[in-house]
Write a structure and sequence with these properties.
globular; 11 strands; 257 residues; six-stranded mixed beta sheet; 2-enoyl-CoA Hydratase, Chain A, domain 1; 10 helices; 17% strand; alpha/beta; single chain
Length: 257
């Protein structure tokens, strides 16, 4: 259900349930939580990429919750630490990039919203159609969408339940970082990951933490978190390595320590 593979300092995690349009069931939720555990525990992994397996009918990221399971066991597609899909509520320190080819709908959109960066092909579409089934988008979309999109655009998606919010429009509003051709989302995500892993991994993680925790907070919170983060970097081996590499005019050799 979940494929995990390491490529240097990058872990590629694939939702591999093509016969069910990569919908989330118990096995997917547990497998995705396990994959994040591996990423967080492995000092050699600095960035994760999350994508969906190609189906016989074409590319698809994730069709959301498995409605057949939801009708009998709605809690089965959640985990204690990660919430829906074992991911949307998961606390983590390392960045994860969503590589979206084809539809990412309902819970699939919510998985994307829980990632740090988004790469999407021009065939990708997003939508939260839960109101069409007398449900609400309880996996984070109701508060994350208006953080990523203009409020009225987010409201329109939530209230209409439309399934046709295209990647190009999402890119226009900033939800999608990189737009690419069909079938190229994973390759483009790997290229973006490569730009991240050349940097000091501890500094990347600390910068991510400060950005997330200071968002929508008063400036004094941002200043305090930034100062605390810088103090942490001063105490690392990689801080000295960064200075030495600059002086010696060579590429730094990061250890994550």
């Amino acid at each position: 259900m979940i494929e995990y593979r390491k490529e240097g300092n990058v872990a590629v995690v694939t939702i591999d349930r093509p016969d069910a349009r990569n919908a989330v069931n118990t096995d997917v939720a547990r497998g995705l939580e396990d994959a994040i555990d591996k990423i967080e525990a492995d000092d050699e992994v600095w960035v994760g990429i999350l994508t969906g397996a190609k189906t016989e009918k074409g590319y698809i990221f994730c069709a959301g919750a498995d409605l057949k399971q939801m009708s009998v066991d709605p809690g089965g597609m959640m985990t204690r630490r990660g919430g829906f899909a074992g991911f949307v509520q998961r606390q983590r320190t390392k960045p994860v990039i969503a590589a979206v080819d084809g539809p990412a709908l309902a819970g699939g959109t919510e998985i994307v919203l829980a990632c740090d960066l988004v790469v999407a092909s021009r065939t990708a579409v997003f939508g939260v159609p839960e109101v069409k089934r007398s449900l609400i988008a309880a996996g984070g979309a109701l508060f994350r969408l208006p953080r990523k999109l203009p409020r009225n655009v987010a409201m329109e998606l939530v209230l209409t339940g439309r399934l046709d919010f295209p990647a190009e429009r999402a890119h226009h509003f900033g939800l999608v970082n990189v737009l690419c051709d069909e079938g190229q989302a994973l390759a483009a995500a790997k290229k973006l990951a490569a730009e991240i892993v050349v940097n000091a991994p501890l500094a990347v993680r600390e910068s991510r933490r400060v950005l997330l925790e200071s968002a929508d907070q008063p400036d004094e919170v941002g200043w305090r978190l930034s100062a605390d983060g810088m103090a942490k970097m001063f105490a690392t081996e990689d801080f000295n390595e960064g200075l030495q590499a600059f002086v010696q005019k060579r590429a730094p050799r990061w250890t994550g320590k």
